[in-house]
Specification:
With 262 residues, this protein is an alpha+beta fold. The protein has one domain: paralog of FGE (formylglycine-generating enzyme) (Alpha-Beta Complex). 16% of the residues lie in helices and 14% in strands. The strands form three sheets. Strands 7-6-5-8 form a four-stranded mixed sheet, covered by helices on one side. Strands 1-4-9 form a three-stranded antiparallel sheet, covered by helices on one side. The chain is globular, with a radius of gyration of 17 Å. The chain starts with 8 loop residues before the first strand and ends with a strand.
């Protein structure tokens, strides 16, 4: 079995924080105080190099483009395939020069499978973070700010699409390219959207129990957080922003970060 290095986790202390945004979309309201137990979360998104160990050990499918996901419907499939092409693995190997970039073209189920494998290898439970854990981690201990670094957008703080005309010449950036937040976490905003464990429910904030919320028991859409290198809407780069996607989603802009409770 291919061994994985011990995950590079940051400890997030137990405590409460204000989740959501009073000036955000309806599904970010009401702002509510959530209590989250201590947990650990990856300092970086999972990289191609880390994911390659999983592929070699398990024979799991490598990131590729096969049937286009629902997000590429409506005449967008050609554009989707063109933008995804640089991230397709060949012969079970990641694209050259991308070893320390976040892995992309991974579905929710792929991320869960990686967590299961890493749990077995490391003998600790590894999983995707919940929405509440992800947002607490992204905020870095500062309540109410739009972004992990403050209320004003800083174009030097994350990888995003400042100019739509250069979309095809941009791409993912190596993890750690941008400054870490107060918890020592990089790329919580921008670079790649990150899968969390929750199903999406637009009204969930109005009825959850506010203590270690894990999301609805079922749903039709999943949640990704944080924005990506192709995000040009600054609202989508806010710590509170919730992006709902069909469960079959995979894209050149979607990756994941791991978490653990112990």
């Amino acid at each position: 079995m291919t061994l994985a290095a011990a995950p590079d986790f940051a400890r997030i202390p137990a405590g409460d924080f204000l989740m959501g945004a009073s000036d955000g979309d309806a599904d970010q309201r009401p702002v509510h105080r959530v209590t989250v137990g201590e947990f650990f979360i990856g300092r970086f998104p999972v990289t191609n190099d880390e994911y390659a160990k999983f592929i070699r050990a398990t024979g799991h499918r490598a990131p590729s483009v096969d049937e286009a996901p629902a997000i590429a419907a409506g005449g967008l499939e050609t554009v989707f395939r063109d933008l995804a092409a640089p991230y397709v693995w060949q012969g079970g190997q990641p694209p050259a020069g991308h070893a320390n970039h976040p892995v992309v073209l991974v579905r929710y189920d792929d991320a869960v499978a990686y967590c299961s494998w890493l749990s077995e290898v490391t003998q600790r439970i590894v999983r995707l973070p919940t929405e509440a854990e992800w947002e607490k981690a992204a905020r870095g201990g500062a309540d109410g700010q739009r972004y992990p670094w403050g209320n004003d957008f800083d174009p030097a703080a994350c990888s995003y699409l400042a100019d739509a005309s250069v979309k095809r010449s941009r791409g993912t950036r190596p993890t750690g390219t941008y400054p870490a937040n107060a918890y020592g976490l990089c790329d919580m905003i921008g670079n790649v959207w990150e899968w969390v464990s929750d199903w999406y429910d637009a009204e969930y904030y109005g009825r959850d129990d506010h203590r270690n919320p894990g999301g609805p028991d079922a749903g039709t859409l999943r949640v990704v957080r944080g924005g990506s290198w192709v995000t040009d809407d600054l609202e989508m780069l806010r710590s509170s922003y919730r992006h709902q996607v069909p469960p079959d989603t995979y894209a050149y802009s979607v990756g994941f970060r791991i978490a653990s409770s112990a």
